[in-house]
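Archive maintenance. Older records in this collection stored only the sequence; we are now back-filling the structure field for every entry so that each record is complete. The fields below show one back-filled record exactly as it appears after the update. Entries are processed alphabetically, and Phosphatidylinositol-3-phosphatase SAC1 is next in the queue.

ARCHIVE ENTRY
Title: Phosphatidylinositol-3-phosphatase SAC1
Organism field: Steatornis caripensis
Length field: 150
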Amino acid sequence: HITPEKFYVEACDDGADDVLAIDRVSTEVTLTVKKDVPPSAVTRPIYGILGTIRLVAGTYLIVITKKKKVGDIFSHAIWKATDFDILSYKKTMLHLTDIQLQDNKVFLSMLSHVLSVDGFYFSTTYDLTHTLQRLANTSPEFQEMSLLER
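Back-filled structure field:
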């Protein structure tokens, strides 16, 4: 969900009530609940957050807008991110000079090119950041951690 003040990322899991709120001014990230999302928010589906990047115009949020299932590892779905959106935290570009606008446009173009290259894979249930060998040698406590905590 997008408002002029915040981005709200809502989990689509059954029973999930948590919403990630990202302040577009302070860039502060907090956890809130669905009822805090204003009804006026523009809503669109995404499949994940790739990250943030700071360019000339300010901070941008990179989100995954399309995915394709490419396989399974131990019954865990592995997805390939196939399309992205680059969302500006700033509501306007009026604070930039013509040269800064042009530089920002070039950087956005370069970023779009990098994102168009194959190779962005993810799983919501399996740890792709560690090798199978390393995962086999970790403690039970590590195995019980969520992917985010790892």
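Update note: The longest strand covers residues 58-73. Helices lie at 98-116, 132-136, 140-144.
Entry marked complete.
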